[in-house]
Fold these 3 entries.
Entry 1:
Amino acid sequence: MSIRSAFDSSRQFLHLLIDRFVAVRCEQVAASLTVTTLLALVPLITVSLVLFSGHPVFDALGSALRGFLLDNLLPQKAGDVIAKYSLQFSQNAGQLTSLGTLILAATVVITLLTIDRAFNAIFHVARPPRTLRRLLVYWSVITLGPLLLGGSIAATSYIASASLGLINEPVLVRSLLFRALPFIFVTVLLTFLYFAVPNRTIRLRDALTGGVVAAVLFALLQKLFGLYIARFPTYTLIYGAFASLPIFLVWLYLSWNLVLVGALITAVLPEFRWGSRVAPPFPGRNIFGALLVLRELGQAQRDGRGRSSHHLAVTSRQAEADCEQLLEHLREAAWIARDDEGAWMLARRLDGIALRDVFARFSFSPRCIPADAIDDVLTQRLLGLHEQAAERLSLSLAELFD
């Protein structure tokens, strides 16, 4: 690959990334997550403390997790103060009334649903899972995540310390290893987030790429943020003892932006790889794509095999995210379904689907006109033209594809 082509590819990728960032309004989502995270911080810490304090064997895990968070996920200036007051607030959580407990629980739920909506928009998820299922998954992450993360940090640190002590490595090697461990843990955590949370198929290498880039940006942000606070103590001069709060808010906002950027990279990579294989946008693309998908599934029915989402996206020359949305619309119409292996197949024979039904589904349907507009003159004319066109589009898809 020449330097010019590499530059063009990089520019194209950045263009896709910026377009998706603006379309999803990531800066607004990050601001919303900043506020809800600030409100949900105390109940989250309370849950973690209950888990660790209820079992003495987890004391080492809790200590390892607290050290990891303070050293790697919080700004240096505000980390100690935030940890101090969060601990005090969480210890007072036991004195809350039932109403106060419900309000704290609601803040956690709002935070989780905001994250879920942002990821659905970034990954073009047309049909998110049910709310109860999503909350159960996220609550499992909240309750089990601290245990697994703390255990991993404690175990890895112990193994690394023991092995380095046995082989008597130089101090430089030890320093590099222990500096690399936090980066590895953050990468694994973000990769899991990008791979498991979206309600669609995500390639592990794409999630890993997004996780690595976000972790690198996170490490740079921590260093630059700490340097800025140390060299330009504006917040401290203005806010005095309360400087930790605005520092923490800015840190949360920037951190959430980086998390969303990693998700954007994961989502955009498949579209970028396809390049010229994706047909350019044109009027009626959804109708044409639906017909291509249904024709391919008709061939699959004759072959006695289903088709994967990736195969259908290639056949219809669509990005995988766009094809996923199209497939969900076709499934809602009860024209296609998934088999036990997750492959797509026809749910109806092609001779039972009329071309006018496809046009009504993806273009114009009289049923979509509001009731208060039925008497409008333009509406009546459109309805008449639609009825005339429907007669010409009454042939079945089996006749169209033969």
Entry 2:
Amino acid sequence: MALKQRSTSSNRSPFTKHVKIHSPIHHTTNTQQRMSSAYLEVKGDTSSHFPCTLSWENINYTVHGSTKDEKHILHNVTGRSAPGQLTAIMGPSGSGKTTLLDILADRVSSGAIAGDIHVNGRPRDSHFRLLASYVAQEDSLLGSFTVLETLRYAAQLSVASTVSAQERELRVQEAIDDMGLRSCEHTIVGDIFRKGLSGGQKRRLSIAIELLSHPTILLLDEPTSGLDSASTHAVITYIAKLAKQNRTIVCTIHQPSSMVYHMFDNVMILAQGHTAYFGSPHDSLAHFASLGHPCPQFTNPGEYF
């Protein structure tokens, strides 16, 4: 999708479409209908995950500051994530990680966006949200609900009404197993007044909620934020298993451990909105060494780069 977006002063919801699509290829009505049908067929009532490659090319993002000066957040960022792959977007605070993820998720409602986003080589369209789910950095859970109650309640709200009660319950049970929550399915979430799930379990529950709609593309913003090393490793382990189910997964992450860093299939390292590196974690060591920045022995590349 060739993206062009301008800021607006309207009071429309942030989820309202503000992007005008200018496709470089003219599609007839029949072609557009076939593309729409393909999107809908993928998301329907099937439990299989139709393989989708998400690619982005020359993504630029500009916002206007209070002084009306333009601020360039992203500069010609290009990358891709294929089915079965877990891709990490890394970089220091303010490098544009979350901004890029939000653009990929079609969640940006202001500023000017330019570039191309494709799903399986086709321009991303309004049906993209039928394929993709987004997990925010902050957990939004009801502390008085158990894990099982939370998922059943979420299934009532998010799963299509055409899905039978039996299929809906099957999705709940699958999500519990996929995120390793079986041992705590009857534990309350908890809050500041009641002890409940650990931070890592809450994060896995938030991800499990998004699995109920059977997304083929999963986008996660800082899924390990605020977690200790053991919980971080557990969360990424389960996310990596989800990718092996023919899903395409992209997440942002800040300074992962060396072990977690090498669990990703691809890493994109951003620096001040520019792409410093995109490729496999293993190849990143040789890449930066060739530029005169070798990672010192016994140093975590996730922190060093």
Entry 3:
Amino acid sequence: MIEEIYKDVFKITGESNLYFLKEENLLIDTGYPTDELMIKQDLSKIIPLEEVK
């Protein structure tokens, strides 16, 4: 699940949390590899994946 927790700051919840800073196109990944598909699906709703650093 993805939610905007602050202006242009998103939290993606799986088995752990990930954070996406939209202005910098920066993903802070503290998650497990098993969450990869879910993360990509959620994140692609707000930005093309090839733009993520």
